[in-house]
Amino acid sequence: MPMLRSLPEEIMQRKFLKQIVFYAAVAIAGSLPITLQAAEVTQEQIKGLDEQVQDIKQDVLQITTELSLLEEKLLFPSNTQVSLFVSLAGSEEMILDAMQIEMDGKVVAKHLYSSKEVEALRLGGVQRIYTGNINTGDHALVAKYIGRDASGDEFRGSSDFTVAKAVGPKFVEIIITGGNVAGNAISFQDW
Amino acid sequence: MFSRRLIFLVACLGSLPVMAASGLKNIELRDLYFGEVLFYAYQDLHFDALARLDIELTQHYRIDESELDPMHLNLGQAEFSVGDIELQYRMDKRAGKAIQAVLGSGVDLATRNMAALALARMYYRKNDAAATLYALDLIKEDIDLSKYEDQSSTDLIGELPEKFWINVAYLRGLASVATGQFTQAIEILESLRNEPSLRGYVLFNLAMAQLQAQQEQEGLVVLDELGRLETDKNDLLALKDKSNLKLAYRLLDSGNAEASQTYFQRIRLDGPYSNHALLGAGWAAAALERFDRALVPWSILHEREKTSYPVQEALMAVPYAYGKLQAYGKSANMYDHAMDVFAFEVSRLDESIKSVRTGKFLEALLDEESKKDENWVVNLRELPDSPETRYILELVASNDFQASYKNYKDLDALEKHVEKWLDDLRMFEELIDIRRAYQEPLLPELEAKFKKLDAQAKLRLEQRNSLAKKIRNMLIAPRPDYLATAEERLVSDQVTALEQYIADRPGEIDERLVKRVKRLRGVLHWRLYSEYDQRLTDAYNHQTSLDEIIEAFKLRYGSFVRTRQAATQSYEGYETPIRKFRTDLFAIQRKLKGIKARQGKLLEALAVNALDARRKRLEDYQIKARFALAESYDRATKAQFDQQIEEQNRLNEERRLQVEGQEDTAAEPVQEDGSEEGTPSILEQIPVN
Lengths: 191, 689
Known about the structure:
heterodimer, A: alpha+beta, 2 domains, 4-stranded mixed sheet, 4-stranded antiparallel sheet, B: mainly alpha, Serine Threonine Protein Phosphatase 5, Tetratricopeptide repeat, disordered C terminus
């Protein structure tokens, strides 16, 4: 690649510039800032530090697992635990904007979706939207959502379900199938 | 702007081998919590995904009857996903172990093959091409395709079998290039050149393999083919530009400047390689001694962002071309301008280096803008201009910097994570205290009431069992007297007493009265025996009703017992684990702090080194510019003096001719020390030097 390498050679050959070289050198030296010595960084250093980072990630993950189990035992004992999950099914053109969950007449969860979350749901991910505690017996669950279709038109859906809580933890999947037809836009699966 | 695009592209190209690494696609979900893991994994929230997956797997293995846990239906995918997500979270050590565990766990061939491919990708990412080939060799190619298809449709693979084999072949081709096995690489990449999913990339790598294998002509032909690719995809357009640039410089370096111009002209003016193309186009014209033409691309470049390498070179190249065109004045002015720009940039670099040293660079790296998502290279563009961020985009082109930066961000996130858990532990303790304060005084009273009710409940249950036993026995041996009503029992007792009274006094009682007692007994007997079946049915129905009530009671009883137990457990037995967790978290926090500080220092050192290199290059330019400026002034002055000498000579000649003419017309004597004598000679005006 032709660079400027030809320039100084040409110029340096000229004797009359010798004086200028001297002055230029003096001028540049004068304009130098405080010396900022750069430290040498070796590949071994980078690799060694990377391994330490991996080890600490492992440590944090391990303690997170234990702490999460403790948290669940403390806050959501299995005999009262209920978890509600949201998944998407049906039209890929549907964009889920928001969800609201009511349990026994009280709003227990609200969520506005980011585009990444919608994409994750679309790919088959399941969002745990609520975890709480309820007594054994029947509980009224109402799921409402707001979404948009491919043309950007907003539509809403709402459906109710009876959560029959027994002794063990209860999991309910709320499946948003989309569409404007009320009644079949949301379905529930008892796990 | 162009350099930013270039860096973005470099980042994108660099990530290509990894982009397809995730096997977490199209998984058939059979466990909600595994679905939650996927929800985070699909958002590239790798820590959250891994943490949840670890929890699920830990819980699954702690269950006695793990086959009852729905997780066991997704267990294969989950085990594989651990390695997959760990790879994406750059935990190569643990990922390697996890993947090798899958390879040795006796799972089906398709999963083993996928695990081997993931392992190969990990090695390739770590620049270990030999290990990549070793891992690829673990993939068994002589498998039953139909079985593989079945497997792929239900397992986590998420790729059609054909795509899988294409990915294997492509990676083998790349690894072969890296290990210098060019013949094998060329053969593999040739076989993939019509693969639509790898369009462009195969051609580029094929050309690189051919050029390295000394197949110069073939390599240039492939680059030319890629350089003419019809596409509207941004990544392929950039790759197309890169091919043309590579080809053009290859020709220019080999002395074929004329031919190189065609390829420089193919490169888009608004693409990421635009600056390099403009610079090269200028040099191609300069090599052909067409400095006027060289000025066209260089002048465009001259006006662009001054931190770019090609632009800085153009600042020197433009006056160089003007000098060659003998426009020395213009050349001198532009060298002067270049020196100003270089001096300004050097001062900005000094400012940046100082800023890095004071820690502002690390703060800027963790700026909110850069945290928005994983596309951090793009986000860095949004950082406000400041000494610490001015050259940041120049720095991120380095792989070492990218890896270190990602680690630094991860460490920062982990630090916050640990702080959150420490806060949560404080909250847990508070919660436990509140629970204890509320429940401890209530429990003794509750316990006393419960004991009383419990005794009553047990009695009633015994009664029920006794009745149930009687009814069951009556089905075998009828006992109508068991089903007599209370009134009938009373009457029966009275009749029995009368019968006894009569028996004790034989002949004393009136016969009519005796007959009447007998009739009473007969009526009672008749009623009990004639209504027995109905009464037994009623008794059975009542028992069934009672059982329903008892069942509900048992549920409430069980619920109460569990609640009572949970109430005790809600505050008992947490002190020791919480204390231990806190100690562990503090230890991790200290360790994290140390590693983060070292990682930060390393990042700063990388930044300072890169900035220092930029600075040295600018200083070099400054020296060259000063020399060139002096030369331009010299040449400009010399040209001016040459012009003046020429003018003086012309005037002298005119005078001489005029004098000769006058001598011819009137032979008047000429004064020897004429007017010219008072005017210094033009030669005298030229400095000695």
